[in-house]
Amino acid sequence: RGINPDWILTTAKGKRISDTDGVDTLLLNISPFCPPNSSGQTYLDYWKETMFDLHIEDGTWDGVYLQQLLDRGNDLIKGISYKTKVDADYNVNQKKDETPPWIHEMTVASSLTMLRSLREKAGMNTLLIPGHLIDPILAPFCNGMTIRNFNWGWYHNDGEKEWFGEAQWNHLVNHVWELEDILLDPAIILLEA
User: What pTM value is reported for the model?
Assistant: First the structure.
């Protein structure tokens, strides 16, 4: 089993969109425009089948940790937060014509599709825990959340005390308590400092 090279998200000029911090994180085309592989599967089809078959079906694992399940466009896409159009060729037309609002909406829709289909196949007793702080859109399908860089809001900017941010940290804790009520039981909250 493997990832079809045509599923990797590229710019309009065909350059792969990836993490530049030395970690080889490639974004995959989760849109309805994702080209099918030789078996007729898009990346979402492949993901649903593989996630269930490799990690849940035989009962070896109680659930899965979903590292890149997002409720917005990925931050690796340059300009996703401030440009009117970004260079992420989801519709595979080799034009820089995708807008951040469309990408955000499509990402949420794809994440919900992934969660719903996995819940449908795996049932309610399988733990599904996303790798990012989630919001009320995804929480009802999950058993938990990961709060990455939990202490960042307390002392961000490499621990410089003049950047002390108790209010930021307090907001994060309050947000977790709000989400805790809509997570599926058993609810697990992972703190990553």
Answer: 0.79
